[in-house]
Amino acid sequence: MVVVGCVVIGILAVLCGWLGSHHHVGFTVASRSAWGLRGAFWPILNRVMTGCVWMGVQMYWGGLAVRLVLNAIIGPKFIFMTNTLPASANVETANLICFFIFIIAALPLMMVPPERLQVPFHVAFAMITSTLIGMLLWSLIAAHGAGELLAISTTQDGSKLSWNMLYGLQSFIGGWLGGVLGQSDWTRYSRHENGALLGQSFAAPLTVCLTAFLGILITSAASALYGQVFWNPFLLLLFIQSKSASDPATRAGTFFAGLGLLASQMSLCIVLNSVSAGMDLTTLSPQYINIRRGAIIILVIGVAIVPWNLVNTASTFLTVLQGWSIFLAPMIGVLIADYFAVRRRALHLADLYIGNPTSAYWYTAGFNFRAFVAWAMGLWPLLPGFVRTVRGIEEYSGWSNLVRVNVFFGFTVAFVVHLGLHMVFPTSGSRGDSPFAKTDHGVLGNEQSLEDVEKRTRANDA
Q1: How far is residue 167's CA from residue 402's CA, in Å, rounded to a whole number?
Q2: Backbone phi and psi for residue 459, each to the nearest 5 degrees, phi listed first
Q3: What is the CA radius of gyration of the chain?
Q4: Which of 98, 108, 114, 243 is most exposed, with minimal Cβ within 10 Å?
Q5: What pLDDT does residue 227 have?
Q6: pLDDT score for 450
Q7: What angle do CA 9, 13, 14 make, to 5 degrees?
């Protein structure tokens, strides 16, 4: 299922990033062709909120990496620090301290321009790769094998097993949808049209698969050693430190593992959240917000959502992922349907920057109702099942089953409805392309007045 999920993610990443690599426009600009010059703010806001949630979650995990490093350096005094916070806080004192230490350490890197981050990312990749390989070798050697977790058979069968397998698949894919939707923010920097294709279609899915496979092996071997299942590497290493607090070898091993995880979380916070969501925020108020200020805003909101409440249990975290995927999957369907099926990979580039009715993407007052209807149709059938999931009601029928395939349902319905509405209600200038040029009017205004264009637009939408 992991392999299937990686393949799906790779395909969606290529399709969503095509606009950036071939037209050199980011997600905020690319959204205007599908949603309208003003309507594009809606998917932008949704992706900003996704970035805020992930920023908070990954900063919390980054704080756990800081704690691993400090535990290894300071020893038992820090490992067994007294927790002064109440149980209702859902976070320990030491974890909270390390959370803010991580934020302080990340702030300078958030000020670095994106084009200068390649070398730090290469270093981080080498560090996390070394960490994963080291943890794998240690766990397999210490446990004298991969453990028995891999050999455990399922306790479910029939339709219940099938639905849970689909739920696991779509939950895996759903965790990547925020990054997939905004692929053009990064592919627009490609030097040639297919520059990002190899990384999106092969390298990224392969590394995700390998990471998942290594994680399963490490978890299985560690469960044989300690009699507990730790799917989170941070919690596994913290548990090891608590069991061997004074052992020099343990402290050295967890120190270097903590450094690798720290570099990984720092990179993820920057590339997937602060920079990408910062770019999106600049569109909302370009006079006052640049990428750096946007990154700071994302960071502040990430702290305000108290992310430890979202990751305290695996079930809660899966619910969070599912919650965002039901909103994002239909948006991806709209984006891909509009560019590949409606526009047929052709755009009037200048019109993406013209905010008046002469633009081919002005539609009705700057909003394309077709995109909003398609998004809503891909979303609303999922809401009843999602509410039941949040309430902890486990059913295998009707709405509950539908939400277990929300990624596939939302994407497909939004794609079909968006294409269908454009076929039934075609728009002027929806086909064809034209290069970018400095002009105050779009393709619909070449030989017409604004008043004529407005009348024609209203007539088409009617």
Answers
A1: 10
A2: -65, -40
A3: 24
A4: 108
A5: 85
A6: 47
A7: 120
In this structure, what token pair is assigned to residue 21?
Answer: 């690599």
The Cα–Cα gap between 9 and 201 comes to: 9
Amino acid 307 reads P
CA distance 140 to 302: 37
Distance CA 358, CA 310 (A): 46
Q: Which residues pair with 120 in a beta bridge?
A: none
Judged by DSSP in three states, 344 sits in coil
CA 248, chain centre distance (Å): 38
Q: What angle do CA 148, 151, 157 make, to 5 degrees?
A: 135
d(CA 425, CA 411): 21
Element (H, E) at 439: none
Low-confidence residues in the chain, pLDDT < 70: 1, 150-158, 312-323, 390, 392-397, 436-462
Instruction: State how far the Cα of 184 lies from the Cα of 162, in Å rounded to an integer.
Output: 34
- Dist. CA 320–CA 429, nearest whole Å: 40
Q: What per-residue confidence (pLDDT) applies to 194?
A: 80
Q: pTM for the whole thing?
A: 0.84
The CA distance from 2 to 7, in Å, is 9
